[in-house]
Amino acid sequence: MASQVYNAGNIQVLEGLEAVRMRPGMYIGTTSSRGLHHLLWEIVDNAIDEASNGFASEVQVTLHKDGSASVFDNGRGMPVDTHPTMGVPGVQVIFTVLHAGGKFNNEYYAYSGGLHGVGASVVNALSKWLSVDVFLNWTHYRMEFTSEFDPKTKKVEAGKPTGPLQLLGNTRKRGTLVRFLPDDAVFEDVRFNGDQVARRLQELAYLNKGIRITFTDERVADASARVRVFCYDGGITDYVQYLNAGKTALHPDVIYMEGKRDDVVCRAAIQYTDGFNESLFSYVNNINTPEGGSHETGFKAAFTKCLNDYARRVGLLKEKDSNLAGEDFREGLTCVLTTMVKNPQFEGQTKGRLGNSEVRPVVEAIITQQMTDWLDNLKNQETATAIAAKAIRAAQAREAARKARDNMRKTSALEAAPLVGKLASCTGRHWEDNELFIVEGDSAGGSAKQGRDRRFQAILPLRGKPLNVEKKHLDQVLANEEFRSLITALGTSIGDSFSLDNLKYGKVIILSDADQDGAHIRAILLTFFFRYMKDLINTGHVYIGMPPLYKVQKGNKVIYAYDDKELAKATKAVGKGYTLQRYKGLGEMNPEQLWETTMDPSQRKLMRVSVEDAALVDRLTTILMGDKVEPRRDYISEHADFNRPDDFELPPDQLAAREGA
Ligand code: 1YM
Fold first, then answer.
1. Residue ending a domain, choose from 346, 379, 402
2. Looking at the predicted structure, is the pLDDT value of residue 485 above 50?
3. Do 139 and 164 lie in a common domain?
4. Residue 205 CA to ligand 1 centre (angstroms)
5. Beta strands in 244-306 (DSSP E)
6. Are residues 195 and 250 in the same domain?
7. Which residues approach ligand 1 with their CB closer than 6 A?
8. Partner residues linked to 145 by β-bridges
9. Are 78 and 226 contained in the same domain?
10. Which of 143, 67, 136, 78 is nearest to 108 (CA)?
11. What pLDDT sits at residue 119?
């Protein structure tokens, strides 16, 4: 059913919700777990919007035992009066009319909540049922919707009201409560991930100072762990302190800046640590922009200029010295930058970059003014000098790294053999099709070299544990032979000369044993990629190879199992009288086996590495790979479940029994 609305010279074609059922991907990107969570965020965003506009102070999110989710805010309540052109209550319009323009925006409801305006009706269309309770004018209203299969039309009638708007009596509450059950006919997996939901709600609480967000997961057995409250009166200042847990701060107070110009609101919180990484997290309308964009460019330009001017003014930079580079001033910097923009345009591969060019000069002006004030303040002189001195050391280290890199380039040109001597390269000419396996240990490396398809697979064996690069300067990384080989093999260079243009492999595959040492090596390599080649991960080039854990054999029938579930299935399939081999390491496999199970593109399993939440990965990398022991111990004792038996150590029949249970 498609209906059309014509108003004041603008014609909008409003399709029925069936369009959403037909192509859910068009509206929520994907029907995977990510899309499922997208539904929840659509509703949460509306609640947060109501709160950040000053109409609500509370947001409550609940995951219910029946698989549904609900969101409540104590704001104005969605409009219930009759819509002038549609002739039905406002809530009904909101949940049943698809807003083709991308947001709900007319003279009656001036809502324009960034990216997510279309949300409510899409959520309804993709739910088995949805109910909305509005508490407004001392009255409790309710409206309910369902999506049901109609045997007559043989179609799903999506998001239809089950009846008119109900008046349920008087109430002292105000606000909106939306509850919905995602349709399992649409989503591959309809289980919400409590950790993921909690993480995003915590992030939203940091980004929206003072809003009290209560998260209840009724599915959790342990009553004491069911409810969590996130509320930060310090907002992004508290966020920076949280991100810096586990690091050593150079100054106790977080520097906070804020301003508003031409409808753009900009806030930044920064604190330096004694580390070497740049941890800058930027947001637009509460949405993370890992690819940066005009707001970040404006911030960086202002920041670099102010600090260079300052260093000159206090004589740390002499007349003959050239200006320091922006990255020098961002070494050891932890920064959260948020901006509120009226009509944000998201660009880039993953829509993670702000495109609006008008935002850059606005952010630049706000930061310049705020930063200048801060640097002029007498009480900040000690910190300001420490920051400038750190940047000068960073510039010196960068210069040393550049020399090392130049040397590396020279040596690799002159005597390529010794440097990438361990690399068994491939013959294929198309870099996208080529694969580099980084293999733990010489013996597995040997098997991989023999077993591979040399047309497109290259092997780089690693000897022993690579250097843990967390808290290592670039020049120290470059002094390490294993990483030099890796960088040369990849062809991308590193640091400010890193470029994907010269990447020689479409897939970079980490292949380590399925034991603790293997996990450690993998963690070290991922730390290296995350800290020094983040774009290699962001563009989806980094993978983890998955060798099988078991081989089940009966007669000449062989089944490889990659986890315990598969093992249970395999043993069931072959029946009694099989032999079981448990692989302790890659080295136990002969070249043919390694090819068949781990390298052959038609049979192997690969895990693509992606960073969903860069702030979280940054914090955890610091805690787990950094030099402070205490935060690591705390983290492990809080999160590790020592009572859970190690799956791999259980005998297979017990495992099978457990799977059955
Ligand atoms: C649990 C989710 O949606 N709260 C909410 C939504 C709206 C209003 C208040 C509201 C807005 C306005 C006027 C206005 C609206 N959302 C939409 C749409 N919580 C939740 N609270 N009166 C009430 O913007 O002028 C339209 S109104 F379309 F985004 F869903």
1. 402
2. yes
3. yes
4. 19
5. 255-261, 264-272, 279-284, 287-288
6. no
7. 43, 46-47, 50, 71-73, 75-76, 78-79, 94, 104, 109-111, 117, 120, 176, 178
8. 130, 161
9. yes
10. 78
11. 87
Contacts of 444 (CB under 8 A, 6+ apart): 461, 511, 513, 585, 586, 587, 589, 594
Q: Is residue 6 part of a domain?
A: no
| Residue % of the chain over a pLDDT of 90 | 65
Does residue 166 belong to any structural domain of this protein?
A: yes
Each residue's pLDDT tens digit, 20-61: 998 998 888 899 999 999 999 999 999 999 999 999 999 999
Say whether both 213 and 315 belong to one domain.
no
Among 45, 46, 74, 94, the mutation site with the greatest number of ligand 1 atoms within 8 A of its Cβ is 46
What's the pLDDT score for residue 421? Answer: 59
- Residue 527 CB partners (closer than 8 Å, separation 6+): 468, 469, 470, 621, 625
- The verdict on 319 and 417 lying in the same domain is no
Minimal-distance CA residue to ligand 1 atom 10: 78
Instruction: Answer yes or no: are the C-beta atoms of 509 and 262 closer than 8 Å.
Output: no
In the predicted structure, residue 108 carries a pLDDT above the cut 90: no
Active site residues: 440, 513, 515, 517
Does 42 fall in a domain? yes
Of residues 582 and 661, more confidently modeled: 582
Residue range of the domain that includes 489: 410-547+607-627
Confidence check: pLDDT of 343 > 50? yes
Same domain, 383 and 422: no
Residue 418 has pLDDT above 60, yes or no: no
* 467, 361: one domain: no
Taking CA atoms only, the protein residue closest to ligand 1 atom 23 is 78
Protein residue with least CA distance to atom 6, ligand 1: 78
Indicate which CATH number applies to the domain containing 165: 3.30.565.10
Distance 43 CA to ligand 1 centre (A): 10
Residue 341 has pLDDT above 60, yes or no: yes
pLDDT exceeds 80 at position 410: no
Residue 127 counted as domain residue = yes
Q: How far is the CA of 424 from the centre of ligand 1 (A)?
A: 60
Task: Read off the CATH number of the domain in which 457 is found.
Answer: 3.40.50.670
Domain count, the chain: 3
Residue whose token pair is 């008046």: 167
Q: Percentage of the chain with pLDDT > 70?
A: 90
The Cα-based distances of 272 to 250, 253, 335, 530 in angstroms read: 5, 10, 9, 20
Q: What is the pTM of this model?
A: 0.83
State the Cα–Cα distance between residues 145 and 132, nearest whole angstrom.
Answer: 9
Q: What is the pLDDT of residue 641?
A: 60
Q: Is there a contact between 14 and 5 (Cβ–Cβ < 8 Å)?
A: yes
249 CA to centre of ligand 1 in angstroms: 41
- Segment 207-225 shows an average pLDDT of 96
Which atom of ligand 1 has the smallest separation from the CA of 111? 24
Region 557-573: what's the mean pLDDT? 90
What CATH number does the domain containing 351 carry? 3.30.230.10
**The pair of three-digit structure tokens given for residue 146, joined into one six-digit string:** 């369902």
Residue that terminates a domain, selected from 343, 367, 402: 402
What are 600-654's pLDDT values in tens digits?
A: 999 898 999 988 888 889 999 988 888 888 888 888 888 776 554 444 444 444 4
Average pLDDT over the chain, rounded to an integer: 88
User: What are φ and ψ of residue 219, in 5° steps?
Assistant: -80, -15
- Same-domain pairing of 317 and 198: no
